[in-house]
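Entry for flavin mononucleotide complex. Fields follow.
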Amino acid sequence: MTAKPRKQVHLAAHFPGVNNTTVWADPASKSQVEFASFEHLARTAERGLFDFFFLAEGLRLREHRGRIHDLDVVGRPDTFTVLDALAAVTDRLGLAGTINSTYNEPFELAKQFAALDHLSGGRAAWNVVTSSDAFTGENFRRGGYLEHAQRYRRAAEVVEASRALWDSWPADALVVDRERGVFAREIPATSFHSTQFDIEAPFVTPPSPQGHPVLLQAGDSDEGREFGARTADAIFTVHGTLEAGQRFYADVKGRLAKYGRGHDELLVFPAATFVLGDTEAEAHERARHIRYQQVSPQTAIAFLEQVWGRELSGYDPDGPLPDVEPDATSEITRGRVRHTKDPLAVVKSWRERAEAEGLSIRELVIEVTARQQFIGTPGQVAAQIDHYVQSDAADGFILVPHLTPAGLDEFVDLVVPELQERGSFRTAYTGTTLRDHLGLRHPHHRTAAEGARAS
Ligand SMILES: Cc1cc2nc3c(=O)[nH]c(=O)nc-3n(C[C@H](O)[C@H](O)[C@H](O)COP(=O)(O)O)c2cc1C
């Protein structure tokens, strides 16, 4: 029997923006909108030979009990503008932007991603999201809000239309003539017609280095997973513990065959946080300190209010969980991705846990909002990450540092060499495009039959 080949770990850097893991109280925390912050994180990720830099997107400031959510006050600059600027100060790092398919036109999106792919020499990626609520839709006159199934239908059409546009220029369309300059031969009109779009014109941008930017997907419902399995090159997920990761990994990889896709054509990237220390005990002490900074007494109550759907300001954060029942229909928080689908069941399980472990409100929130955390010495963290990847709980991780913009420095300096030592992480970039880093083929290298099955 031949041994299973060692998988290579893939790493990406999430810019710590308005996430609930970001710690703003730390004196080392800096601006979330100045270019210097984006540049610092991107350069650090590139120094660490990461696959890509990742920007999430929020199209409306979230509200809680009628007031702007405190983490959102810092705002978010436009994704394309930031990534285009980062293309100029990085050389190999992939540049991934979360862009909504519900409110945007495919022609515009295809043009913007093709431009990013050109400007960066083949490093663009698009995390296709559909948005989760009508509240965000109020900012958009056309497109507005669509029901869940329609949003995924539209997402599929947006991607199909974009692919048709990217593929529309023949490979030999551009001619370089030393006398007459560069000109284009015949560019056929893209003819794309679907339930939502009618496009009948030549595309404006020549084929970009990757052919298509890398496509990521981040919805977790059955439709979302199916859309990812059919369409995406990688999935961004919250399923980051070993067991949940393995279940999710097997689930989405298991959906590939019916689309004629191979096991390695879709990579799985859970979000992950990490805390390092010189000793294991020190790392755990730091992690505890960070968790208490992330979940202040007010944050703990606000979090419960989102799940209970009612005002709970009279409850003591250091006391027991509220004895009132949740209101499953309430919209106390608006603009937030709801990872809690069934509040009644959630509240029941939290009560049981709080009782069994003697947890206060704040302690419980600290426990239940902890995403996958790798905690330990650099060697231990490298071993944990490697173990998850070798055990098929993930192909890699999108790391979410808790500090802007220096939160990745230590990881790159201390954990990356340990991963390299284990033989699980590259020691140099071997290719120039993001597809190269991820081991994905150029879309035009697909056979005709594969292309037909995928579309
Ligand atoms: C891990 C993860 C990250 C997401 N990131 C974003 C984001 O940055 N911006 C956004 O508008 N929606 C984001 N979404 C929302 C998804 O696009 C989707 O609209 C939402 O999860 C509802 O779809 P679903 O029912 O398939 O999960 C994210 C979802 C997940 C699961």
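NOTE: The first helix runs from residue 35 to 47.
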